[in-house]
Amino acid sequence: MTDENKEPLPPTVARVLDEYLIILHADNTIDNEVADRLDALLRNGKVPKPEEIDAVLFAPTKNQGP
Amino acid sequence: MIHIKTIHIEEFRGIRELDLDLAGENFGICGPNGTGKSGVVDAIEFCLTGNITRLSGQGQGELSVKAHAPHVDQSKNPDKAKVTINAAVPSLGKEVTITRSVMNPRAVEIVPADAQIEAIIGELQSHPEFALSRREIAKYVVTPPAQRSADVQNLLRLDYIGDLRKALVSYANKGKRDAEEAERARRTAENELTTALGLDTLDRQKVLEKANEQRSALGLPALTELTPKTSFKEGTAENGEGHKKPSIAKDVALADLAALAAAIDAGEPEALKEHRESALADVRMLQEDEKALALAHGFITTGLELVTEDACPLCDKPWDAEELREHLKAKLLTAEAMGTLLENLGKTIGAVMGSLEERAAAIRKAAEYAAKLDPAVPRAALDARAKALEDAKAALKAFQDDHSQIEGAIAAIQDKWWELPADAQARLDETQKGVRALPDSSAKDKAIDFLAVLQDRYERLLVSTETAKKMAARSATAQKVHDHYNSVSNKVLEDIYDAVAKEFTDLYKAINDDEDEFIGELKAEPAKLSFNVDFYGRGTFPPGAYHSEGHQDGMGLCLYLALMKHTLGDKFTFAVLDDVLMSVDTGHRRDVCRLLKTEFPDTQFVLTTHDRVWLQYMKTEGLIKGGQFFGGWNVETGPRIWDDTDIWAEIGAALDKDDVPHAAALLRRYLEYISAVLADNLRAQVEYRGDANYDLGDLLPSVLNRWRDRLGKGIKSAAHWGHDEVKAGLEAELEEAKALIQKTNAEQWAINKSVHFNEWENFTKAEFKEVADAFKALLDHVRCPNPKCGGYPYLTPRKGSPEQLGCSCGTININLKTK
Q1: B208 Cβ partners below 8 Å, 6+ apart?
Q2: Which of B178, B345, B419, B651 lies 20 to 30 A from B329 at CA?
Q3: How far B175 CA lies from chain A's nearest CA (Å)?
């Protein structure tokens, strides 16, 4: 299924995720890049598996290098 | 969403072939029970979603769409059962034809194949709640709070929010367990190091002192600081002078074995005993609740809802109601109690797992010493015991990951694993004896061996400490990510429930103008959604507590509309209401019509009812323009239908056939109906009858008198406020009313029998046509001239001194106040 055909998130879900991203960005202990990756994962419309959450939370950031 | 223009149904449910023309407008379907109305509702739902709730819903296990959606005579030919809907898509300004066959309910044919249209049909498919039956309405009002929570969350499409919450909780819990495991590994490494050093606790200075004692024996310089890069054995012969590495470092081995033996002799530590007993009690409680969940959780929950008197609702055995409730509640763990129990279990089981891990590691080490002795002590019994402990730990971990794995967890917790089986104990004793018997090496070799073991255990502690720190940091992040989500989603949901409750309250007040103080409350609690409503200022109660069935129907509809409005917003353009308001009384039906018409002007409602008068109300109030009557059904031909044509066209058709008696009967029946509506709208003063059996002669003259009187009142009001133009307009309208009323002869009925409505059937065609035209002109004069409204005006408020005469759209708006 292409992105265009993907069912849009219900408005309530979108609202929760919008506000969630704001809170994540406001948390100094969470890197913005990590927050954005988590946001993208949750907006995918599929419930993420633990290893997928792990990958977005603890993948090396651009600042950290390899 | 869409507006349906036409529906074509073939061999579907009780229908052989049927075409309906809705013209994209609200549409009424009326007929007695068993005439096929619901077949139309099923057809709409099937065409748009591929499913029929009536066949696939709860408790419909033996029914299926494929087997039971085709007409009974075509049950073997599902390919012949199909529905086609032609619809407008207002948001896209496009039209679409949707066809679905029972042969393959999942496949839908959409013409034209347009991605945007397909997305909208997909959205409809995910919102089957657009079709609401009376049976379903109950679920929003009188179902238990836990079920309501699920239904409402489902309707609001909040399941994904809940699913994400579960995923993040699960991830945070896993992070926590991983961190605990890493910390246990670090503690084990620390214990092994302190055992080797003969220390009670780890102290940097003492580690250096112990290491330097041995380095001094080798003539090596003392180490001055302990860093991750510290090498205790730097400069020893092992690094190049041909030192033969011993198989066992005797002192360290003796210390390890002595520590294990002492731990076994000491029996179960008090702290472990407490953790084990607590874990066992909690797991057993969980096991009981699991049984309840599997067998009777729903039954007990329903039972709790049904306890209204001092007796068991099932067997009528006398019980104090409060006592019975407590008795039933004790059988269930609330979500809150479950959360506390699982949290406690996480701690106690973690402690048990830590002890198991330490003991298994110590026994494995003993087994390795046993194998290195010459002659070797058989290690199998020790390995078997270590393996049993590792398996017990794995069973506890499996339980932490999946709480249904209870049996293995109980066995692991119950096992007296701090004791060593006799054969393993014998091997341990032999190993200790064998190590003690090893020849003492030279002080120099002893120092080299000690530093080698120290180096190995120190490096393992460093690695495990690093891992534990990393895992603790990950766990903290996972917990924080979950906590943020939890607080955000809770707040959003609370806001939504507040907004829906407010919308519900406004809608309900609009159809119950005698309940000004009414409020509805939706309150989210763990795993349930409470719904309480005001009862005439006496407090808030569940809707089923005091409100009548009719009021509950009204509440169900209002809550449904509020939820749909909130969920779909502008996309709420279509809804099927299948006999949902049959318990709502006459006075409130008109208000419901106005509510649907004024609050949801862009939503196309398809309404079914078995009550002809209800359909007339919908027409009179301008809610629907068209409708279809279903009058009789048989299995061979399906429903017998006829169009709900315009009454004046029907009268005209009868006159065209020179059938004056039929035309007269039609006019009389229609005027009886419309007089009752206008008497109610205008609060006409009619002689009271206990049996409420008013005929046309009782009602119409009073209605016409009241109409003139209200216009006169409007003229007075306009004069009072100095609105000359309005006054002049109303005066002209009053003159017109007088002339039109005179033409109908209605006021002559009491004094001139030759013009009485009972005589109409004896009139000539020309005479009767004059009468019919006069009444049509009079009623056209009364009703709103706006073609989009066309409703009859009514007085507001409905009680007390009338202040205004107006219609739903506001085109008729006559002020009656003079103060």
Answers
A1: B222, B223, B224, B225, B226
A2: B345
A3: 9
Number of domains in chain A: 1
Average pLDDT over residues B788-810: 86
User: In this complex, is the C-beta atom of B170 within 8 Å of any C-beta atom belonging to chain A?
Assistant: yes
Q: Confirm or reject contact between B126 and chain A (CB < 8 A).
A: yes
ipTM: 0.91
How distant is the Cα of A16 from the closest Cα of chain B, in angstroms?
Answer: 6
Positions of E strands within B621-720 = 626-634, 638-643
Domain annotation covers residue A63? no
Nearest-neighbour CA in chain A from B119: distance (Å): 7
A17-61 tens-digit pLDDT:
999 999 999 999 999 999 999 999 999 888 999 999 999 999 865
Residue B443 CB-density burial (10 A; 0-12 exposed, 13-18 middle, 19+ buried):
exposed
Inspect the interface and report whether the beta carbons of B567 and A10 lie closer than 8 Å.
Answer: yes
Q: Which of B167, B171, B484 sits opposite A24 (nearest CB)?
A: B484
A64 within some domain: no
Expressed as residue numbers, the domain containing A21 is 3-58
- Between chain A and chain B, how many beta carbons pairs sit less than 8 Å apart? 79
Class of domain B3-137+567-643: alpha beta
The residues spanned by each domain of chain B are 3-137+567-643, 255-440, 647-815
Residues of A in contact with B489 (CB under 8 A): 16, 20
- CA B264, B268, B272: angle at the middle one, nearest 5? 130
Calpha distance B141→B52 (Å, rounded): 22
Tens digit of each residue's pLDDT (9 = 90 or more) over B364-392: 999 999 999 988 999 999 999 999 999 99
Flag whether pLDDT at B442 surpasses 90: no
> How does DSSP classify residue B542?
-
